[in-house]
Design goal:
Beta-Lactamase; Heat Shock Protein 90; 388 residues; elongated; alpha+beta; binds adenosine-5'-diphosphate
Length: 388
């Protein structure tokens, strides 16, 4: 390999890289950076990998102070460390346990790992340092840490989920069991009227259990099924839902206002329909108390996303429950039928679409349930299958 490093031989007798071509080839073929420094911190030799790593031209580092490769804020300290090394020279890793950084010619910094080797010669003491650019390793480390944290978070969620499910599934079972023992007593005592009442309660508890299990299955399918992504015209999609809910809207004297210029978003039409259907049905179920109820679809645009809202003029939701109602089985109104899974599903589906769901509401002022669609979404498992 051609070099112009005759200047390398700066110390009078020692020649780190003179005319010994084999030696030069070997030094330059090392995949790590190699650098030799004297006691004053002057760079006497370095291989091409070192120059490449730090963005210097051939021979440009020779004669420079080692400290130009060290971040400005640690330079002064580094001079002391270097002198310390010459006082107690030994083969070792530099800065064990610390994050070392090197400064490239363009001022950018790279994470490095440095091995130090003392070199004692008749001409004096030197240090041979081997330098490895660990940018890729650091990236991998970060990815591993992130993956680990995600697994931890999922474990926590799973524990919470199992606890909630077992707790809430137990409730109708407990009710059933108690009424079954009442049934036995009523039967023995010939109290047929009470017997019918107990039977009805057992039936009701069973129905509740059935609904909870059904909704849990829906929730689990939400996370497992692959998204079938296409362009969705939201005005069109919500108008379809309006048609399907015609009877319920009429029954609850509710107007559903759908603007014709809602955005076209990317997503799985079936899932997104599930989101709006859930929110509109909630509006019908919880808000329809007036003589004339209105559910209105709103939208806003930010730099990065579309936000679409389902606004009702119902009783609204106190601020302390705004987050809670999106959690599994959380309900504020036990008079109405439901399992408390709907908003959890809405939130999951929006999460899969790179967006999220939240509510804005004040008691007595109605509620607006918002969902957001990123303008540049990435999906967990993409499967584009045309225009909806
Ligand atoms: P469910 O309707 O089965 O109870 P959800 O998860 O859809 O489950 O809703 C959770 C709770 O949030 C409901 O029980 C209700 O108390 C409250 N909620 C949802 N939508 C509305 C709304 N539009 N107005 C007032 N309260 C609502």
């Amino acid at each position: 390999m051609e070099t112009n490093r005759e200047s390398v031989a700066r110390t009078e007798n020692i020649n780190f890289k003179s005319d010994n071509t084999k030696f030069n080839i070997i030094v330059d073929s090392v995949p790590n950076g190699l650098i030799v420094v004297d006691i004053r911190g002057e760079i006497l030799m370095c291989n091409s990998e070192m120059e490449k790593m730090f963005g210097y031209d051939n021979g440009e580092l020779i004669g420079q102070s080692l400290e130009i490769l060290v971040p400005r804020e640690v330079r002064t300290n580094h001079v002391g460390l270097r002198s310390g090394f010459f006082e107690h020279p030994s083969k070792r890793q530099m800065g064990a346990g610390r994050d070392l950084r090197g400064v490239r010619k363009d001022g950018s910094e790279i994470p490095v790992e440095i091995g130090l080797n003392p070199l004692a010669t008749e001409q004096g003491n030197f240090v041979v340092a081997s330098v490895v650019d660990i940018t890729e390793r650091k990236k991998l480390d970060l990815m591993l840490i992130k993956a680990y944290e995600e697994v931890q978070q999922k474990n926590l969620e799973m524990e919470q989920f199992v606890y909630t499910v077992s707790h809430d599934l137990k409730a109708p079972l407990v009710t059933s069991s108690s009424y079954i023992s009442f049934l036995r007593e009523d039967l023995q005592a010939g109290r047929y009227k009470d017997l019918m009442d107990s039977l009805e309660r057992v039936e009701k508890a069973n129905k509740k259990m059935h609904e909870l299990i059904y909704d849990l299955l829906q929730l689990s399918r939400t996370s497992r099924m692959e998204l079938r992504v296409s362009s969705i015209n939201l005005s069109q999609l919500i108008n379809e839902i309006k048609k399907d809910l015609r009877d319920q809207l009429a029954e609850r004297i509710t107007d559903l206002i759908v603007p014709e210029n809602l955005p076209v978003v990317q997503g799985d039409p079936k899932r997104i329909a599930q989101v709006f259907e859930n929110l509109i049905i909630n509006g019908l179920k919880y808000a329809a108390l007036n003589d004339h109820n209105v559910i209105e679809i709103l939208y806003k645009e930010t730099e990065s996303e579309w936000q679409v809202g389902v606004k009702d003029n119902g009783p609204g939701i106190p601020a302390q429950y705004h987050k809670k109602i999106f959690a599994l089985f959380q309900r504020l109104d036990n008079q109405k039928e439901g399992t408390g899974v709907g908003l959890t599903i809405v939130s999951r589906i929006m999460g899969l679409h790179g967006g999220h769901a939240w509510v804005e509401s004040e008691p007595g002022q109605g509620a607006t349930f918002w969902v957001s669609f990123p303008k540049n979404p990435t999906f967990p498992k993409e499967n584009h299958d045309g225009i909806h």
